[in-house]
Amino acid sequence: MxxxxxxxxxxxxxxxxxxQEHITSxxxxxxxxxxxxxxxxFCGSRGVxxxxxxxxxxxAVNCEHPVxxxxxxxxxxxxxxxxxxATDVLEMDAAxxxxxxxxxxxxxxxxxxxxxxxxxxxxxxxxxxxxQSAFNALLKTLEEPPSYVIFILATTEQHKLPATIVSRCxxxxxxxxxxxxxxxxxxxIAEKENIDLTPDASHLLARLAQGGMRDAISLLxxxxxxxxRITPSLVCDxxxxxxxxxxxxxxxxxxxxxxxxxxxxxxxxxxxxxxIAVFCQDMISFWRDxxxxxxxxxxxxxxxxxxxxxxxxxxxxGKFTKETLLWHCGLLDDALARINRAASxxxxxxxxxxxxxxxxxxxxxxxxxLSRISKLEAVRFSxxxxxxxxxxxxxxxxNENEDEKPYVTVTEDKTVKSxxxxxEKASSAATTYGKRVLRPLRAWADxxxxxxxxDIVKWINLNAASAYTDESGNAIxxxxxxxxxxxxxxxxxxxxxxxxxxxHNGQAINVVFETAPSSGGASxxxxxxxxxxxxxxxx
Length: 539
Known about the structure:
Blueprint: H1 5-8, H2 21-32, E1 39-43, H3 50-62, H4 76-83, E2 89-93, H5 100-109, E3 120-125, H6 132-143, E4 149-155, H7 163-166, E5 170-173, H8 179-192, H9 199-208, H10 213-223, H11 232-239, H12 244-256, H13 259-271, H14 276-295, H15 307-317, H16 322-341, H17 346-358, H18 366-381, E6 391-395, E7 407-411, H19 414-421, H20 424-432, E8 439-440, H21 444-454, H22 456-463, E9 466-469, E10 475-479, H23 482-491, H24 494-505, E11 511-515, H25 522-537
Parallel strand pairs: 1-4, 1-5, 2-3, 3-4, 10-11
Antiparallel strand pairs: 6-7, 8-9, 9-10
Helix pairs in contact: 3-4, 5-6, 8-9, 8-10, 9-10, 9-11, 12-13, 12-14, 12-17, 13-17, 14-15, 14-16, 16-17, 16-18, 19-25, 20-25, 21-22, 22-23
């Protein structure tokens, strides 16, 4: 009968465990010097060696002839544990045996000495799945077991364990295995199994495994099923990934607004029956790599890329600002959530998201505006003839009422100043919209915290609002709808709120409730017109 590769190549000694030397070295020392703990807790993600190390530990503590803390592997005790015939080593899956009765059985058994081996070892996998009553039944036994009993608990979700359980164990944190270590192990197994595996494919498989040795070996076996040479292309076709080449092509299309390429690549993706959700995940991963490259001076330390892939990433990352990359990441994350909720609309969701990523003007969110502004800054500072000096506020003229002049912040740069202040279209829009300058209210978060501690209902009604100060010194509490404003007026005293705001700001401030203007109004138009003007003049 065929045996899965991950089982066939499961380590049989601590030396064979890859990527967990910080744990295996401690376990070897304890076994060699007879300093065993009565309970161990192995924490970490899936496939990193928790259960494997538990079985090796069970062999080592019962080995008749241990060598430097390692099991010899040939004595009767080692063979019995390895073959699963040792009655004194019990492995229990807490996912399916999570009741209090299962733990009571263990509690009743520990009073009996081992029948064959030196220690009775209980390995409880996925221990976080135990019920609360089961944990309570385990507490006393786990704290003071007989000298011949050792508990080894393994979990992927340590945060779900009661603190009383964790404090009674010697805890080990298993790390995700680095990509180079996984790749070396895959190459070794491929050589022994006569699998034709290219170095690039080995690196890709290791990266797809996300730090899990079992996942990496399982992917290797899956890709070797056809008997062909395993290349990156074969790996992508087998696991349903789009591949880095296609992702890079999409990124270039977004940077150049090449809509034909975008639609063509999505059509090819759908025709090949690949998962659009996986495609979105690949895109998010690629954009994350670009953001790391743009943000860090030592990006290579945080990227699992070859030298050629790093050069390609550097070339395409230079076409985006950090603000643009952050905006794109938000769009892709939203798209992935929508695709997971409604797979039937996956194609159109992916297409609309990529089209929106090409042009910030198609999105009215703050992230899109920051992306546009960052591009303008990049153009300005790349031009040596344009030198920024200082910023100040200048009023836009208003012949009707000189006392109520909206302020527009500009930079003292001749080119930009003339574009903003002297642009007739932007100026007229600015004087048409409102007659106030609203600035964020200081200490609004602290005010909300104070209200929350005294009256949760008032806090709920005010938490949905935004707070500003106007040129008259009033505190403007704005709500998104008339309904929210009326609810607040019914529960919150304006006079009382004025006293709280005044105490936090050190001066008398009157509070005014109002409903915010509808979105997409003149405020957005002003920003768009100013940015459009700047973009035209800086081309």
